[in-house]
Amino acid sequence: MKYRLLGNSGLRVSEIALGSLNFGEQKAWGVDREEALRVLSTFAEAGGTLIDSAPNYAKGAAEEIIGAFIADRRHEVVVSTKYTASSDPHVLAGGNSARTMVASVEASLKRLGTDHIDLLWLHFWDGTTPLDEILKGFDALLSAGKIRYTGFSDVPAWLVSRAATMSEFRGWARPAAVQVEYSLAAREAEREFIPMAAALDLGIVGWGAMAAGALSGGANPQRRPADKVPGAVRANVDAAREIAEEAGLSLPEAALRWLLRDGQAAPVVPLIGARDAAQLSETLASADGPLDPEVAARLTKATAPRLGFPHDLIGSPYLQRFAFGKDNEMHPFRPRA
């Protein structure tokens, strides 16, 4: 396992993160406590440090399992959890408000059995809470020592950009990272999030690294029947599988090594899950190895997302000629902040 700094922070995290969405038996695809602890042990033994959770994962059971695991190794683990989603149906229980933030953090600290959270994510945008309220709440928790770093998960890119700028100008702690869906099969984050993160020096944690199982090589993504997988995802999976087979790689090897390849403008920390310790070992082994640059280029081209407006327009040869002359010596076009 290699390590990297998370965005603009000094926080060192493993190049792969472990998700805990399936910890706990509240769902049919959940992992029981004993197996979840084995998964965590396997991850730690492989050098993994970044463990991600949320209060609503198995109604808090996931955080409790992680708390039991880190009890005697807190200094070796980067604990990441979220606030916003609540298992309590009451109108005041969830959302992005400072009230919810504080209550959620206090409850998470108890379940995790720790006095601080290393990385607190806003889980998803609720569309109602003022951004300065959120940022002031983050800053207060940082000053109180209850959290160490902050980030935004599943939030529009323009809001994250505004949050980073607002924090900088008001003297509040800047967010360290964003968490977005990102995989070889689902690359829509390249429209706005990847360029934004590169420009603002934000770390990227990519959930859905195996596209809910579609890139694992198995027939059934755990939480989504095969016939419910979006067509674009299926097409990308098929294209990636063909290229991987020609290169003598398994589909998981191609998918994970592509995410971890060198030379990215904004490196991504893939967030992976596992139904048991054996599967996690197989996944980690798949990621351990080189990816030929030519194969990486083929995978990139074959699964490229349509960027849409305005990217298709401003990157078109028609407008590029107006900007750089008929020979377009600046080609290929690369947006800059």
From TrEMBL:
The keyword Oxidoreductase applies. Keywords: Oxidoreductase. The keyword Oxidoreductase applies. GO terms for cellular component: cytosol. GO terms for molecular function: oxidoreductase activity. Pfam families: Aldo_ket_red. Residues 15-302 form the NADP-dependent oxidoreductase domain. InterPro entries: AKR_Detox_Biosynth (IPR050523), NADP_OxRdtase_dom (IPR023210). PANTHER family: NAD(P)-LINKED OXIDOREDUCTASE SUPERFAMILY PROTEIN, NADH-SPECIFIC METHYLGLYOXAL REDUCTASE-RELATED. This is Aldo/keto reductase.
